Amino acid sequence: MSELQLAVAHAVKLALVVLLAGLLRRGKARLCWSFLAYALAILVGNSMVSLWPDRFYNPPFWVLKQGVYDALKMAIAVELAWRAFAAFPGAMRAARRVLLALLAISTLALASLTPPSSYLTLWEWQPGIATAAVWLLTATALLVVWYQVPLHPWPRAIMLGLAPYLLVFVAALDLLRRHGWAAFREGAGLLDSLAYLSLVVFWAWAAWRRDPVPAAPAQGSPA
Amino acid sequence: MTVEIVLSSIGCVLLCYTLGRYNRALTLQRWQFVLNAPERQAIESLRRRMAVDSALVRQALEAAGRARGASRAPDALTVLRVALDVLEDAGADRLTRLRAMGVYSRMVRAIQPLPPPSGAPFRGARLRVAATAAGCVHRFLVGTQERFRLWLLVLGLGVRIVLRGGRRSADAADRAPDRAKPWEDFARGVDDFEALDGCHLTAFEALVASLSAVDRGGRLRLWERIVGDAS
User: Which side of chain A, N or C, has fewer Cβ within a 10 Å radius?
Assistant: First the structure.
């Protein structure tokens, strides 16, 4: 792990602490419990790797923690959809169908088209998982807008941050695949870490922000 | 470029575009309207507005006809333009409401079924063809929501056809004030606009009836749930 990577890892850790404090202080943790679990998992994983690199900065640990992060990202996408449509049975029915179809397609594609997960071939199986997560979030966003479902600013911030980061992650893996492991490992890792730092800073800002309370009842029909 | 990058980019752009434009305050305002629909009062107010629009157009058209009968072509044309202006304003109002009804129709679970669109009440050939074609499509649609939206589509198309016809008739009357055809066409357009207003009112009544079908307690619980997580 280079000095720069270590510095970025510590910055991410600090931003995560600020994010978690914001979530608890502003009471936003209850809006998506799997996000809280995800942020804690990232903090623990990041601390283990950056504080004890000799023991945890190795391929098996990377595959293990990435598996946990991937599962939690999927859980975030599903929980956000479930919470957004919980009060709307019609929209919930449609969301259930769409999300189940997306999960089934992604699982089939991952099971049949990608090799068994290994650190040395991570660009072959990780992009599929990230793409599935992006589309779960996108489907939720499209259904929210289609059914005009009220969405709290915090879940909106989670989705608006996570999807672009996942795109950067997929792009970094593609660079790794094209330029080779030896030549681009450091570069891809740094690109991913910097993108992740930006994401956590954005989430921390959104977590601490005071959200507007819904306005008083208004007369007439809004167009 | 890999398939995953393409798919992720498309998904990411769609998400950022939809959620970037998402306006929570407006959404909450719409839900507030849906859950507190002023039902009868809203229908009566719309009915009154339609009656006023119709009376204004009819009055202007009759005044134009009288001026034309008295061989005062410039006066007749001026009043005809006034009738067209009233029609244009009324048309803009109807199109705005049809758009809003399209949004609200997605927000209610059940829409009261409407009869299939029919060409019978209309006099204009294009409007009759459009309504008859929509009546055929209506038979193939299963969901009440889809049928309701087809109605809104036909009504929007109808308003546009009448307004375009009105503009064309007014221009033709400008060019040849002595010819009877443009005046007859304009009068036929006014008849069609009134028939469209009748359908517009029926659709609005159906939407309001669907909104009021959600019981008061249910509405309050839903509203509390909608805004509950915001405080």
Answer: C
Average pLDDT, chain B: 80
Pick A174's closest partner by Cβ from B5, B11, B16: B5
Structure tokens that stand for B169 in this block: 């008739």
Mutant choice from B1, B10, B15 vs A, greatest count of A C-beta within 10 A: B15
Work out the average pLDDT over B103-112.
60
Identify which of A137, A156, A166 has the shortest CB distance to residue B22: A156
Nearest CA in chain B to A155: B19
pLDDT of residue A206: 95
**Dihedrals phi, psi of A33, to nearest 5 degrees:** -65, -35
Q: Domain extents for chain A?
A: 3-208
| Interface-testing mutation among A80, A131, A162, A202, with chain B (most B C-beta atoms within 10 A) | A131
pLDDT of residue A3: 83
The pTM for the full model equals: 0.66
Q: What is the pLDDT of residue B110?
A: 42
Instruction: Give the Å distances, CA to CA, from A95 to A65, A81, A143, B113, B137.
Output: 29, 7, 7, 25, 27
List the domain boundaries for chain B.
1-35, 37-228
Beta carbons of B5 and A127 less than 8 Å apart: yes
